[in-house]
Amino acid sequence: MADHLFRALQTCEQDGRYRTNLVQRNVNELPEHDVLVDVHWSSLNYKDALSASGNKGVTRHYPHTPGIDAAGVVLSDRSGRLAPGTEVIITGYDLGMGTAGGYGERIAVPGQWVLPCPAGLALQDTMVLGTAGLTAGLCVRALLQAGLTPEQGDVLVTGASGGVGSIAVALLAQLGFRVVAMTGKTLAHDWLRSLGAAECLDRSELEAGQDKPMLAPRWAGAVDVVGGQVLAQVIKTTRYGGAIACCGLTGGAELPLTVFPFILRNVRLLGVDSVEQPLAEKAAIWDLFGGPWKLEALPAICSGIYSLDELPEQFDDILAGRIRGRVLVKVG
Ligand code: NDP
């Protein structure tokens, strides 16, 4: 294929329905940004499936190439900061939302979005982690900064079999915490234990007492990816002085709650965003994953490797919460 041509997935609107197909694109069609990257790997995130299904909160204009994560090699950098051949990763900001994303063999991005591949991680491993790993890492760091230690008691992870959840389970367990993994998938219990969970809890076990302002205290801390009623129950069952990192909404965006857990139990709710974090903050988490947080369970967290043409079949599965762990995407 000529140098300026590349393969990419493209989501288009047809008669009010959104379809994603593999197409050939031209580098000239990419935005005018400094850094041109030859993408080798990407990953599947919940947000990618939203983008590919026409969710206007994620992507406003179509045709569009999704993919909020990308790892590859610099082809050129007009600013001169990154030498051609440098291995780099890009996660978040506008990649895959308004800017053509990692499901294409080429991306053009501003230099402020680009990080050199962290020491200690292969390019492929960075995308097993991807935005989900970065988010799990930010959640765990927020809990540690709030003073959480393994001696304080159990830490709950909700949506535990998903991308953010499974990485949070593995990381917390590796750091010495007793992790309780909450999941809707009975079949995932053994796998979650193999990642380090001490105990698995069915989603339904946290449903009782939805009308009560507080419930029997159980958790010293929590990572919540589900939001909605589940997060409300987590907050109501958190022990005095506990902290909860909140990053997702797979179960809903509302939060049916009173202020009592906060003002009577000193519970702290810590919001976590991975998308607009300053690049230096992202780099700090990536360096941890390449060093002291290097995850032994990473190979087990990768549930499959898909090529660009195979990927669209996975979109419905992640939206329905049927994916276990992380899906890696082989791009170029
Ligand atoms: P995944 O789809 O990989 O995992 C989500 C998990 O949530 C599912 O596997 C399932 O786990 C659980 N789940 C799904 N539907 C429901 C439901 N209706 N009620 C309760 N639990 C449900 O997604 P990710 O891990 O990539 O992302 C998780 C969330 O975090 C998403 O909302 C995403 O948008 C958000 N996110 C936020 C970021 C940020 O920067 N704040 C960055 C990345 C993600 P199980 O079956 O085990 O319960």
From TrEMBL:
Pfam families referenced in this protein's UniProt entry, alphabetically: ADH_N, ADH_zinc_N
PANTHER family: ACRYLYL-COA REDUCTASE ACUI-RELATED, SHORT-CHAIN DEHYDROGENASE/REDUCTASE
Native organism: Isoalcanivorax beigongshangi
Entry-linked InterPro entries: Acrylyl-CoA_reductase_AcuI, ADH-like_C, ADH-like_N, ER, GroES-like_sf, NAD(P)-bd_dom_sf, Zn-ADH-like_protein
Domain Enoyl reductase (ER): start-end pairs: 16-329
SMART domains reported in the protein's UniProt record: PKS_ER (SM00829)
Transmembrane regions: none
The protein, known as: YhdH/YhfP family quinone oxidoreductase
Superkingdom of origin organism: Bacteria
